Design the sequence.
């Protein structure tokens, strides 16, 4: 089964189950196990850190017909789940579908308000306040240097086993009424990569660093000289893209071997 | 001084100062008194109940030049205020300006999601979940009967001293991606009036009551037979309208005498 869901990350210690800490995975497992009277495993497209939200997270779960009957429909799951997690849909996944390894791309957004008089209290749980005005054009110019297939080692938390080669397909800031919003899409992201990209572009936007600086530290590939990892709460996993049904099985085999130890 | 502000009502026991309870007015007074080293009074356009939010609240405060200098600018106030209140602007008000008595109209919104799979966790602090699908057209047809200058006694909390005559200038539901949003504008609202209007229209929207029902209970004028007062958290004070500067003084004199004991 493929399940699409959203959550408000504020009150979670991230996606993954942790002993004695509230996690998104933990809450979902609790409800699934309770409703199916059994123990199930769930697999996620993109593990999110503590405080990170999702509007378009995807999970898959292997269930027999008996378990599917017990889960019934998304409405039943939503009645059982806490209000900060909502299931949008629950469908039989195509053969070979894997929420993580079938994914072609992930898209995140990051929301920054650069004027204290424009901060919306109702959106503060997913908006960063930045004390200096941001130059969107400068940030977009700097973003050019982070596009394409590159080694993002300087933008990732050190993990010896894995490669930091990632392909950033889209990276752009735009202004919404009261905030600057960054949209970034890549085949996959390593740990803290989006928040490091924001940490590289904001100093350009507020004039502390030249436009060429983010590309420079990227080229340096030095994990210890990377940009500031920005706060988690303005970050939202917006959508995960998958291939058409016929391409699905092939894709899963390719990516599973390529990135066995990665975040996805 | 005229001050425009927003707040997230979730963590407040309403607008007005109450002993030992956190209120919007209380937080603002604390900061104003602290920054001006004096005791000031603030006057609000529309008192909001516990849990009600504002995107366009207006207050006025009488200050001497010394006090104005100490408040400096909205940025300074925002640094001192808690994050669930934001000041948008602070301007010298025209002569005769009174946040409450000069106001020509107030506009509120009320947000209801009628599909559990469409609930957005990030917006749940200002969205009501309704368990049955809503028919927007039926609600808009029923809303026609509540327009114009009428006696809203059946939609207001009993208060012997005051009249419940109010003029509803605009009342309409529209569908935004995931939710039905009601927008209502009137010269003024009596206590719990917007939430009673929602309580009258939702049973029409989900088919429990006929389209003519809201107008019927309005015509009954019976405060004890009014509609359900719906929850506060989906309600947002969006904007308060004022006359042009030259019409200001005249307006204040008229409304002050008309509604001395009302909510505004």
Sequence:
């Amino acid at each position: 089964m493929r399940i699409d869901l959203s959550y408000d990350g504020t009150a979670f210690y991230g996606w993954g189950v942790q002993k004695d800490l509230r996690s998104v995975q933990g809450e979902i497992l609790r409800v699934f196990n309770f409703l199916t009277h059994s123990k199930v495993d769930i697999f996620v497209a993109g593990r999110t850190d503590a405080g990170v939200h999702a509007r378009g997270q995807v999970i898959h779960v292997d269930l027999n017909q008996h378990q599917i009957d017990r889960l019934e429909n998304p409405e039943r799951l939503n009645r059982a789940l806490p209000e900060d997690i909502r299931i949008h849909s629950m469908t039989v996944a195509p053969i070979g579908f894997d929420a993580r390894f079938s994914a072609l791309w992930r898209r995140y957004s990051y929301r920054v308000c650069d004027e204290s008089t424009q901060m919306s209290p109702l959106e503060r749980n997913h908006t960063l306040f930045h004390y200096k005005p941001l130059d969107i054009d400068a940030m977009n110019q700097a973003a050019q240097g982070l596009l394409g297939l590159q080694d993002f080692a300087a933008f990732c938390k050190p993990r010896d086993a894995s490669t930091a080669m990632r392909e950033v397909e889209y990276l752009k800031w735009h202004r919404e009424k009261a905030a600057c919003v960054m949209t970034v899409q890549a085949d996959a992201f390593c740990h803290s990569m989006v928040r490091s990209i924001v940490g590289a572009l904001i100093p350009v936007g507020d004039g502390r660093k030249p436009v060429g600086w983010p590309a420079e530290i990227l080229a340096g590939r030095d994990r210890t000289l990377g940009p500031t990892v920005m706060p988690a709460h303005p970050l939202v996993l917006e959508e995960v893209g998958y291939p058409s049904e016929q391409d699905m099985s092939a894709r899963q085999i390719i990516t599973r071997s390529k990135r066995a130890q990665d975040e996805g």
